[in-house]
Amino acid sequence: MKKILIIGASGQIGSDLTGELRGKFGSQNIIATDIKKATHEVMENGPFEILDVMDKKGIASIIDKYKITDIYHLAAILSGNAEKNPKWAWNINMESLFNVLDIAIEKKIEKVFWPSSMGAFGSTTPAINTPQLTIMEPSTVYGISKQAGERWCEYYFKKYGLDVRSLRYPGLISWKTEAGGGTTDYAVEIFYEAIKNGKYECFLSDNTSLPMMYMADAVKATIMLMEAPADKVKVRSSYNLGGISFTPKEIADEIRKYIPNLLVSYKPDFRQVIADSWPRSISDEAAQKDWGWKHEYDLPKMTKAMIENIREKLQ
Ligand code: NAD
Ligand code: AKB
Question: What average pLDDT score do residues 266-274 get?
Fold first, then answer.
């Protein structure tokens, strides 16, 4: 019987992934944890515990208590927040990963999921249709921690046989919770501000193209990767995930199909430099070939889903 521990379940991904895993494997088999409270849905529909991923003994005791078989480690400090306090972010992003990888070996955990990011790429990476294997010279502390994390995941797989799997997510767009302090957060904020106030001040320039993905696709990819037979998972660092690429101007124009008077102004801040160092589009050919990945949501379909869900949520 599968028993899954999710660490960082109160965040943007956890708020969607937890429900999806509970639907698939049974509510009582998915143990959601975080240092902060989660959405009502996550806290009420199955086990929820407060857990600090830096507390190795705490993780071990939850593993024993629930007889955990698989771990999804989602806790991290994202790109924007990490730049404000680099060493603190490095410590959390790296120590938490070591805690999870080491405990996974100690407790004979069957599978571990750890997300990387397109932030692992840098300005010397080919920016268009970025290939799976390419130059990776990230210039943010977040990106450096993701790149190092990828190397460690592969190392634990090769050296200790730990079945650890990973995806390089692009910017994720969802409506259940706010985005967690990253550079792509504008693409979530713009929907809330458009619906609530009819205007938005964007912290990236109007023509900054970045790879993005609707959360339903990201959750689907995560579960597909974790359910794939081990011999199909050829990449043990992290798989590229492409999704859709658009600029702030393009998403604003799409939202105007629903909110014609939306006003958007542009005031780039420190996150512009981060965005400029990331790819414009990403090739996920390896994921397609190895475990049959294909995304479903394009910009119009994602925009429609976001507008409908946020309008309903804010009623
Ligand atoms: P998020 O910031 O929304 O959520 C992270 C969660 O981790 C938060 O609920 C936070 O309370 C929790 N957390 C922080 N420190 C903790 C600690 N010490 N112990 C336990 N929990 C702690 O982030 P997210 O968007 O859900 O991202 C999850 C993972 O996916 C991260 O590794 C992130 O780098 C990666 N990722 C996210 C995106 C995206 O666009 N959301 C894109 C690429 C990669
Ligand atoms: C961020 O902007 O930091 C994240 C990411 C792409 O990793 N959304």
Answer: 98
Q: Are residues 111 and 36 in the same domain?
A: yes
CA–centroid distance, 32 to ligand 2, in Å, is 22
The pLDDT mean for the chain works out to 98
Task: Report yes or no on 283 lying in a domain.
Answer: no
Residue 33 lies in a domain: yes
Among all bound ligands, the one having the nearest atom to the CA of 120 is 2
- Give this prediction's pTM: 0.98
The closest alpha carbon to 166, from 113, 118, 215, belongs to: 113
Q: Give tens-digit pLDDT for 1-12.
A: 899 999 999 999
> 260-283 b/e with 16+ CB inside 10 Å = b?
eebebebebeebbebbbbbbebbb
Residues with a CB atom less than 6 Å from ligand 1: 7-8, 10-14, 34-36, 51-54, 74-76, 78, 92, 115, 117, 169, 171-172, 180-182, 184
Which domain covers residue 180, as residue numbers? 173-211+244-278+297-314
Cα 181 to its chain centre, rounded Å, is 12
Ligand 1 centroid to residue 193 C-alpha, Å: 23
CATH number at residue 50: 3.40.50.720
Residues making up the chain, counted from first to last: 315
Say how many domains are in the chain. Answer: 2
Instruction: Give the closest ligand to the alpha carbon of residue 214.
Output: 1
